[in-house]
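Researcher: For the annotation table, I need structure tokens for Intraflagellar transport protein 22 homolog. Please keep the output clean. Sequence:
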Amino acid sequence: MHLNKLKILIIGPSESGKTTISNFLSESTSIEEISVARPTQGVRIVEFELSHLNVNDKQVKVDIEMWDCSGDHKFESCWPSLRLGVQGVILVCSPNTINVAAREMELLYNYFVSQAKLSAKQCVVFYNCEDDQDTLDSLSLSPTFSKVSQVAVNLKTGGNRLKIDFSNYVTSILQTIKSM
């Protein structure tokens, strides 16, 4: 079984590591090539394929269209276009964005998940940790996120884990879409 394209937004506060995660998942860069952060201007679309997903006991291949969105609010006027046709949302925050994360994540969730009428299964929070001292416990999100999967991401030590978590997330989206 092959679906055309799955549109997934990756969004969160500025400097939370969205582009690094996008590049890693799409295999545009390896962990060793991760360099200094450069702010994304508006949006950057990365396309790649995931195969060998098990969805309802069927092997599935899916094309991912990942929209790596700037965390800068000067691009907020583009949000309606970004949200159009979205099937999944990855919210990213990190220890260096923790002070603005709770409010910002709530705003982004409301706009890109709730108003787009996506289910909690079509959303995931990636907490982009630099070291193993950072845990999900330090991420204090509102009860809005109680049904949303929250995953600690450490690309330096857990890149393979991230790929597995991402595949599971995509499978969850596909199962949700199929049951609608």
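Researcher: And a one-line annotation?
Model: The mean pLDDT is 85.
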